[in-house]
Design a protein that fits this description.
mainly beta; Jelly Rolls; 2 domains; 16 strands
């Protein structure tokens, strides 16, 4: 059975470590990247101010007695961004959901890569929360590819997923109309 250690670092950062057959009381040190003595199998940090945010996730690599940092590969759910009017996506929307609620038609703009550099592979879910139809609008130089070139959400509660395929190319899939 593994052992578990929690360390509160400052007022808003917690670290967690997991060991196999090691006594953390005598061998636990600082962050392995800072040269501490740390024989743990895994190391996780998160911010208490944003508990869904993983600051670092490191796994021990026995082959070279080093650490592999997977923190940048893990993206927790981002929640829902509620909008009520015309809106242009921001980096904060990456891997999250944007719900647009309005009584009238609304444009949701997908910005070009020079303005907002979403990483390739970014996914964003768009939901039409009101009766006003949401139209996905590409900024200049952006290509939105969808079946039948449809870029309007069909009706209230319709959803569409956007996935970034290249610098200024996105695929749009979902409940869409012309």
């Amino acid at each position: 059975m593994g052992k578990f250690h929690r360390d509160i670092v400052g007022s808003d950062l917690h670290r967690f470590a997991v060991w196999s057959d090691v006594d953390p009381a005598t061998t636990y040190g600082t962050d392995p990247e800072e040269g501490g003595v740390h024989p743990g199998l895994a190391w996780l940090e998160h911010s208490t101010g944003a508990p869904d945010t993983i600051v670092s996730l490191k796994v021990r690599n026995e082959a070279n007695d080093g650490w592999v940092d997977f923190g940048a590969l893990f993206t927790p759910p981002m929640g829902v961004n509620e909008e009520t009017g015309a809106y242009e996506l921001t980096l904060a929307d990456a891997e999250g959901t944007v719900r647009v609620t309005n009584a009238g038609a609304v444009a949701l703009t997908v910005p070009d890569n020079a303005t907002i550099p979403f990483p390739i592979g970014t996914s964003i879910l768009v939901i039409q929360g009101g009766v006003g139809q949401v139209t996905l609008t590409p900024a200049g130089g952006v290509t939105l590819n969808s079946a039948g070139a449809k870029l309007k959400l069909t009706s209230q509660y319709s959803a569409a997923a956007l996935v970034k395929m290249a610098a200024d190319e996105w695929v749009v899939s979902g409940d869409l109309s012309a």
